[in-house]
Amino acid sequence: MTIQERDKNAVWHPFTQLKTAPLPISIVKGEGAYFYDDKGNRFIDAIASWWVNLHGHCHPYLTIKISEQLQTLEHTLFSGFTHEPAVKLAERLLGRLPDNQSKIFYSDNGSTAVEVALKMAFQYWSNQSISKTKVIAFENGYHGDTFGGMSVGARNAFNLPFSKLLFDVIHIPVPIHGQEKISLNSLNKALEQHDIASFIFEPLVQGAGGMVIYSPQVLDELIYNCRQKNVITIADEVMTGFGRTGKFFASDYLNEKPDIICMSKGLTGGVMPLGATACAQFIYDKFLSDDKLKTFYHGHSYTANPTACSAALASLDLFDNPDTFENINRITESHKRFFLKIKLHKALIDVRQLGTIIAFEIKTDEETNYLNSLAGNISDFFIARGIIIRPLGNVIYILPPYCISNNDLDYIYKTIEDFLNSL
Ligand SMILES: *Cc1c(COP(=O)(O)O)cnc(C)c1O
User: Fold this and answer.
1) Contact between residue 417 and residue 396 where contact means Cβ atoms under 8 Å apart
2) How far is the CA of 188 from the centre of ligand 1 (A)?
3) Which end of the chain is flanked by fewer CB atoms within 10 Å, N or C?
4) The domain made up of 3-59+322-422 is a member of CATH 3.40.50.1370
5) CA of 261 to the centre of ligand 1 (A)
6) pTM given for the model
7) First vs last Cα of the chain: how many Å apart?
């Protein structure tokens, strides 16, 4: 049996209609910005393996640091016990995070980092016997696939079977260019209710929603207004963290700093699963009590897994080397040049770019959403040309590992142009 046949017999894949899906490509090796399949074909990983990979696949430094950790302490429980990699990582993350952040809570993926943030915010109020149980979130947002994450995310085809089971959220319009006032007014109206616990948002870029970009100025205003009304602000930096937007965190573009920040995806350089939720001291303080019921009773078996922490530490070492941000800036400049070249293409509705992210929204007759039938054709077109791109409906985007070469970037741009010209 081929690996694909064995796969079909035994495996259930995410986000995939397995009745009609083409056979999956069997990847046998990763190196830098490339994957190799079992037939010897090479692919450029133009989307950093679902936005996680930063420094390239099988980076030798990360590999060595992780294997060293594996030989001393692979895993330990994390309640009543601690270890150097978790402590050091918390210290180093706090060194990189906005100044108001003071504690790190570990979990193991982006959805759990968001669940932790939401639960922290809810319990912050409940520990003070204040009844605040509603959340404000953006329309079109994505915060993961657990029930909390789905509840605060956009209500769409992906979570339709569960719609009755999701908790109450006030969704407000995204403050894209021209819509800032509408968004601010909706927020202010929602803030008139006195039971709002928190406001959660993807800072500056809504990833899964189609790489929708909005300005730091309007987000500053939204956060400021929340603070005036005692509403906790949660920045979901799961996609935007670790250099993606051109600064270390998207929150670094802001003057008003969020109270809670969620991290995952790039946290370990894309090598190991790990989530982290940072919070300000005032939140942590409300969980300190002689009353046991005020404890944050949340945890995961693999909380602060030492091997994952060692990967994150090694990735931060690479950020201490100026090369990493030189690469981020190089990709940013390269994207900007292509943006100017392509933005008026007749097949496009819009081109958006921030830092290492560039997205192309293609004209379509269908209502634009994730299930747009263009998506499958687009993937095939690029796979046939040795490039891995998974469009979000009618939106193609590039979000590459930082080690990608200028040649490969130019080849991807050229292939996108060819694709647009073929429409
Ligand atoms: C991917 C993503 C998540 C969910 O992370 P997982 O590790 O896939 O659970 C949450 N929030 C944002 C902004 C994301 O991009």
Assistant:
1) no
2) 27
3) N
4) no
5) 13
6) 0.97
7) 38
